[in-house]
Design brief:
extended, Aminopeptidase, seven-stranded mixed sheet, single chain, alpha+beta, 14% strand
């Protein structure tokens, strides 16, 4: 799209289809009449010979095209908003509904149902005669009270409202049974006597001056600086929750933040140490306290011909949630019991079969790493950073570094394995060591994309027990499809993908980089002989190429070839 003579007129060109250029009239038929025009070989549109320029229709200007594009964009946004308003109701899964209706949550005789009924003020179910006709809607009386949920009648409602008529709702909460939550041996209990901290907190109830946020000035709040901290929770910010009419997410976030800042400054501590607060019968008044509502019961008339309605008339959404939670809990317990039976059967099988000579002396099993293992991997990383030349780190690392390593291994489809002490399900897992593969040169479009650097580290007190052998054997089995595992250990890979035989990443070379003090020849000799048994060979030696503990270190490169063959070799 270009201008021919410096004017505001444009010429449309299509460099892909020279000689088959569409006329401007074809693109904007409403702006031009059917006038014959010639198209040159280079795609430019020329005036017909013999026709004055004043008589031909002008081409659309840039401003007209922009205006039409803006109109189309606005129409697309309007159409999108209409589609979002169309709610598609899907039928619930019959199996899920059956679980929700199976349990004490919908049994009128159960204690759970009675608690739900008490909290919801459910009236006793009265059996209806299916032969009677539905009662007609009662005629409105002459005197009607103003509706309290209508803004039109707000002033009238204020005049007729008497706060003293509802004072008993707040008094009911104040006079309710006092209970204080406390954690004893990991269990939350309700006591009748407060702790010292709770006693001090009670002195600050209903006082706006005592709350730390209430002292802020809403007009002097610091500017909101967006950071990456909210990214892990970005899935909670669904675009469908943006109010219609605010299509720019930044405007929505700033508007919400300003509302939140204005709300926080009106803060105070409230008294929640009552039984009605913990059982859900109390409701916040939006100011400084709670109240127990005393709402009148309203009769709900069911259709006598609706058999399903009568069959399930006593069921509630909360009862469904209770039943579903019980089913999920039972399924989890059944799964735990199944895993315990499988583990016991596996242990009996291992105890009765012939012992593998490659089995480790330590009672361990291997599994892929999880984010919960960071706290136990940190001491292993930092011990080698402080005490050993084998680690490239000269100072202790933080937990964020290990988290990044785990995430990088997942993104690169490379293994990260931990050796865990075998114990009962109630015992806390103890990690003895780890093994991982990392990209030699990060990125799928780098020269080292077919090479992975391997690392194996074991706690000092757990060395010489075969743990390193297990980690290396599994690491090679994952990275090299042709490697034949010597087994002798258990690899727990339930519910995880990418750690089967061969893994997911295609690799041509596996590399160990070892840094050793020049006088530690025995350590180097033992490490080299151990890795040579697995097909590694020394392909490089750099004297004094690293520095740690104020000493120069010799760096050795031990490489193992896999069965992968490069296309250009």
């Amino acid at each position: 799209m270009s201008s021919t003579n410096g004017s505001d007129e444009i010429v449309l060109r299509d460099f892909r289809n020279k000689g088959k250029q569409r006329n401007v009239e074809d693109v904007f038929p409403h702006t031009s009449d059917s006038v014959e025009k010639d198209v040159s070989s280079n795609g430019n549109i020329h005036e017909p010979n013999g026709e004055p320029a004043a008589e031909r229709k002008r081409s659309p200007t840039r401003s007209e095209i922009r205006a039409e594009l803006d109109q189309l964009k606005k129409q697309a946004l309007v159409d999108w908003a209409k589609r979002q308003e169309e709610v598609v109701l899907e039928t619930a899964d019959p199996a899920m509904v059956a679980k929700c209706r199976d349990g004490p949550g919908v049994d009128p005789e159960s204690e759970i149902y009675k608690k739900i009924a008490k909290r919801r003020r459910v009236r006793p179910v009265v059996e209806a005669d299916l032969n009677i006709e539905l009662p007609s809607r009662p005629e409105p009386s002459g005197e009607e009270k103003p509706e309290d949920d209508s803004l039109k009648n707000l002033e009238e409602f204020k005049d007729s409202f008497d706060p003293e008529e509802l004072r008993h709702l707040w008094d009911a909460y104040e006079n309710d049974l006092v209970l204080y939550p406390n954690v004893i041996k990991g269990q939350v209990t309700l006591a009748t006597q407060p702790t010292e901290a709770q006693r001090e907190l009670k002195k600050k109830f209903k006082s706006f001056k005592c709350h730390p946020h209430a002292s802020q000035d809403v007009y002097k709040l610091p500017p909101f600086v967006e950071s990456s901290d909210w990214q892990p929770d970005s899935h909670l910010c669904n675009w469908l929750f943006v109010p219609l009419g605010i299509y720019h997410v930044d405007k929505w976030k700033k508007k919400f933040r300003r509302w939140l800042d204005n709300s926080i400054v009106m803060s105070c501590y409230i008294d929640q140490y009552h039984k009605s607060y913990f059982d859900g019968t109390a409701h916040p008044d939006g100011s400084t306290s709670f109240y127990i509502p005393d709402l009148p019961d309203h009769t709900t008339i069911l259709d006598p011909n609706d058999e399903k309605g009568h069959l399930h008339r006593h069921e509630t959404a909360e009862g469904y949630c209770r039943n579903l939670a019980l089913h999920i809990k039972k399924e989890e317990e059944d799964e735990q019991q199944r895993l315990i039976r499988v583990r016991r059967a596996n242990e009996e099988f291992l105890a009765n079969r012939e012992v593998n000579p490659n089995a480790p002396k330590a009672n361990i099993y291997l599994r892929p790493v999880e984010m919960k293992d960071i706290s136990q991997l940190l001491p292993i990383y930092n011990w080698y950073a402080r005490e050993s030349c084998l680690s490239i780190h000269t100072h202790e690392v933080k937990s964020d570094y290990i988290r990044e390593r785990i995430q990088a291994a997942k993104d690169a489809q490379l293994p990260f394995i931990v050796a865990v002490k075998r114990g009962s399900t109630r015992e806390r897992e103890v990690i003895f060591g780890y093994a991982t593969a990392s990209e030699f040169s990060p990125g799928q479009h780098t020269t080292g994309r077919f090479t992975a650097q391997l690392e194996i580290f074991v706690l000092p007190e757990q060395q010489r027990k075969g743990i390193g052998y297990c980690l290396l054997d599994k690491l090679l089995q994952i990275c090299d499809p042709a490697y034949c595992s010597k087994e002798g250990y258990t690899f727990d890979n339930r519910g995880r993908c990418g750690y089967s035989l061969g893994g997911e990443r295609v690799l041509a070379r596996l590399l160990f980089i070892i840094s050793i003090l020049p006088e530690d020849r025995a350590v180097y000799r033992w490490t080299r002989e151990w890795l040579e048994r697995y097909g590694f060979e020394v392909q490089g030696q750099l004297t004094g190429a690293a520095c740690k503990f104020d000493r120069l270190l010799d760096v050795y490169y031990l490489v193992r070839k896999t069965t992968f063959v490069l296309n250009f070799r």
